[in-house]
Specification:
Layout (H helix, E strand, L loop, with lengths): L4 H5 L5 E5 H17 L3 E2 L9 H9 L5 E3 L2 H9 L4 E7 L3 H11 L4 E6 L2 H14 L3 E6 L11 H12 L4 E7 L5 E2 L2 E2 L3 H20 L7 E4 L5 H7 L4 E2 L9 H5 L10 E12 L2 E4 L23 E3 L5 E6 L4 E5 L11 E6 L2 H6 L3 E6 L2 E6 L8
Parallel strand pairs: 1-18, 2-11, 3-4, 4-5, 5-6, 6-7, 7-10, 10-11
Antiparallel strand pairs: 1-12, 8-9, 12-13, 12-17, 13-16, 14-17, 15-16, 18-19
Helix pairs in contact: 4-5, 5-6, 7-8, 8-9
């Protein structure tokens, strides 16, 4: 992704620019992998947070989409999406009320559970409304956040299956790059373990007389390798649509396939060894710890074409760039581009982004930005 001088001059910085043509090619590449494996693709919209791109994914062949929150799903439904999985425990009466209303507008709504208490609350609300919820049970395969341990999955699945207003149709997981509970850089190894663990969970649940329609897993790092195992029938990658520095570090993306850039303007050069840009913590995400194994990121984004520079200190409105060679070489008014470490959180910092398509820039609202509920 290359922005020429006239395009850079047209930007109001700090901002994010997305290459639509490259994003479309990334969409098609992942869809081709899923189709070849006979597996459904249900991409996670947390990366782009825009119905525009969700529609592109469905038009390319995706079975539906994945959201994290009911508020995100509401935005996507308004944008014309009709088959949505909310892959996050739907706990709280306010969320359940909104899910009941949302279900009336969709062809298919799938909800997530990872506790009996959560399942019983969903069941009670569905019974009162005279309807049924389709649900999936989340399995922890090593990420150690939400999801039930493998050893208790069958018992909980049986208890859920006995709730009359819930239909348990599948299991799902988010594993990311870990192996035997520890971070790994080996996507193939992580994916094989993910497939094995989900197969074990499905087998244990089947032993209780419950036949599952869907076994869902696969993030952007593990998805392509998980497809090869044949042990899931759905994957839910998200970041692949744009890619980022993290996926490049993990060996599952190449810099030429990264369809996202920050642009920022140098607003101050008080000394030779550092300069200040117009984006700080309100623009650049800080969810990745610097100088930490395994990838040892040295800045909050990589400055393109200037490997001697580090964006490693920020305040709310100030990004401080220092040089490891003594002089930054930057000048006031210069516009620089940077590659995000983690694109999902980068886009969530923006009310709108620039779309670059056929060498033309236009603004697009990030409609599901900040949807927390």
């Amino acid at each position: 992704m290359i922005l020429d001088k006239s395009q850079l001059a047209a930007l109001e910085t700090p901002c994010v620019v997305l290459d639509v043509g490259l994003a479309r090619r990334n969409i098609e590449a992942m869809q081709k992998l899923a189709d070849a494996a006979g597996c459904r693709l249900r991409p996670h919209v947390k990366t782009h947070k825009m119905p525009l791109f969700a529609r592109m994914q469905v038009e390319a062949g995706a079975a539906g989409i994945t959201c994290a929150k009911v508020s995100e799903a509401e935005v996507m439904a308004l944008g014309g999406l009709e088959d949505i999985f909310i892959a996050y425990p739907l706990v709280g009466a306010f969320r359940i009320r909104r899910a009941l209303e949302l279900a009336k507008k969709l062809k298919r709504l799938i909800l997530a559970v990872d506790s009996l208490a959560g399942a019983e609350a969903l069941n009670a609300a569905a019974a009162e409304a005279g309807t049924r919820f389709e649900v999936r049970l989340e399995i922890d395969t090593g990420a150690k956040r939400t999801g039930v341990p493998l050893e208790t999955a069958a018992d909980l699945a049986l208890a859920i299956s006995n709730l009359k207003n819930l239909e348990l149709t599948g299991i799902y997981t988010f594993k990311s790059l870990n192996y035997q509970g520890k971070p790994t850089e080996d996507a193939e190894l992580a994916a094989r373990e993910e497939g094995d663990l989900m197969e074990q969970a499905a087998s244990a649940i089947a032993g209780r007389g419950i036949i599952l329609k869907d076994i869902s897993g696969g993030s952007s790092p593990t998805g392509p390798a998980l497809l090869k195992t044949g042990k899931v029938n759905e994957i839910r990658p998200g970041t692949y649509i744009f890619n980022d520095l993290m996926l490049c570090s993990e060996g599952v993306a190449s810099p030429e396939n990264v369809a996202v850039r920050f642009a920022a303007t140098v607003v101050s050069c008080p000394r030779d060894d550092y300069a200040v840009i117009d984006g700080g913590t309100k623009c650049f995400p800080t969810d990745i710890a610097l100088n930490t194994a395994p990838f040892q990121y040295t800045g909050y984004a990589r400055i393109e074409g200037k490997d001697h520079l580090r964006l490693d200190r920020m305040n709310e409105e100030h990004g401080i760039i220092r040089s490891v060679e003594g002089k930054t070489g930057l000048s006031v008014g210069e516009v620089i581009t940077l590659i995000p470490i983690h694109v999902c959180t980068a886009i969530n910092m923006q009310n709108s982004v620039y779309l670059l398509e056929n060498n033309v820039l236009r603004r697009e609202k990030v409609e599901a930005r900040g949807m927390l509920v």
